[in-house]
Design a protein that fits this description.
Number of strands: 7
Largest sheet: 7 strands, mixed
Order of helices and strands: EHEEHEHHEHEHE
Number of helices: 6
Main location: membrane
Number of domains: 2
Cofactor: Mg(2+)
Subunit structure: Interacts with SUFU.
Membrane topology: Lipid-anchor
CATH topology of the largest domain: Rossmann fold
CATH architecture of the largest domain: 3-Layer(aba) Sandwich
Radius of gyration: 18 Å
Enzyme class: hydrolase
Bound molecules: guanosine-5'-triphosphate, magnesium ion
CATH class of the largest domain: Alpha Beta
Shape: globular
Strand content: 15-25%
Length: about 240
């Protein structure tokens, strides 16, 4: 199979307390817009964007989850199959900062260890900050995660967050492929493992013919992109909404 026929898709979940700016971040990234009004997300939504990183076309599926606790039971089902995660808080919301570790645990309980990044949003409101820069840095160090300051409003660092996660994922994918080269799996075109939830490798797969294939259990929400990547054709702002 020629390289351009292989599509790489990454499911990214964006989590964090209500009103920290998760939906705004995804809208900014996928549609290039920002709205001042707050409309809490009910359950889950998703948008997608295609980008090029290291000469690879990558389709990012960005899953926007509700931050309000009342939706926890619904949203966690959607973490499964994720390969990357944004842990978001707001510089003007102390509780959202303190909740980051618990969001990380919730995601890891469903998908194991995946690439994550901590994002402190609303940096345009730094004058009203309720978190000291050292505190945010200490948290990132403790969790051993990259930390970004963003302003979705001013469009600061949003692209960088998703580019970083994509690069991290591609690194992992390539190192897994090298491993696979050493011990190929018979009868499988997936890079996968037998342990459905806690082995992060389960989530690494290139999928062929535009189809996602996944060995997760029945409760996993499986994405099915409807078209194959065509070389030279970039669809920068595509969107699909689904669910609930
Ligand atoms: N000043 C400022 N406001 C922002 C920024 N990002 C988002 N907001 C505002 O913050 C509010 C909440 O944003 P949302 O994106 O809806 O928050 P959310 O995290 O998706 O909230 P839930 O869906 O309830 O989990 C909205 O009024 C946004 O306009 C930012 O970078 N700066
Ligand atoms: Mg939202």
């Amino acid at each position: 199979m020629r390289e351009e026929e292989v599509e790489i898709a990454i499911k990214v979940v964006v989590v964090g307390n209500g009103a920290v700016g998760k939906s705004s971040m995804i809208q900014r990234y996928c549609k290039g817009i920002f709205t001042k009004d707050y409309k809490k997300t009910i359950g889950v939504d998703f948008l997608e964007r295609q980008i090029e990183v290291n000469n690879e076309e990558v389709r990012l599926m960005l899953w926007d989850t509700a931050g309000q606790e009342e939706f926890d039971a619904i949203t966690k089902a959607y973490y499964r199959g994720a390969q990357a995660c944004v842990l978001a808080f707001s510089v003007v919301d102390r509780d959202s900062f303190e909740a980051i570790e618990s969001w990380k645990r919730k995601v890891e309980a469903e998908v194991g260890e995946i690439s994550m990044v901590i994002v402190q949003n609303k940096i345009d409101m730094i004058d009203e900050a309720l978190i000291q820069p050292e505190e945010a840095e200490a948290l990132a160090k403790k969790l051993r995660l990259r930390f970004y300051n963003t302003s979705v409003k001013e469009n600061i660092n949003v692209d960088e967050v998703f580019r970083y996660l994509t690069e991290k994922y591609l690194e992992k994918l390539n190192s897994d492929e090298e491993e696979e080269h050493i011990s190929p799996q018979i009868g499988s075109d997936l890079i996968n493992s037998e342990s459905p939830h806690l082995n992060p490798k389960e989530n690494h797969y290139r999928h062929k013919n535009g189809k996602h294939r996944n060995k997760n259990d029945d409760s996993t929400i499986t994405l099915q992109p409807n078209k194959r990547r065509t070389k030279g054709r970039k669809n920068m702002f595509t969107s699909r909404c689904s669910l609930l």
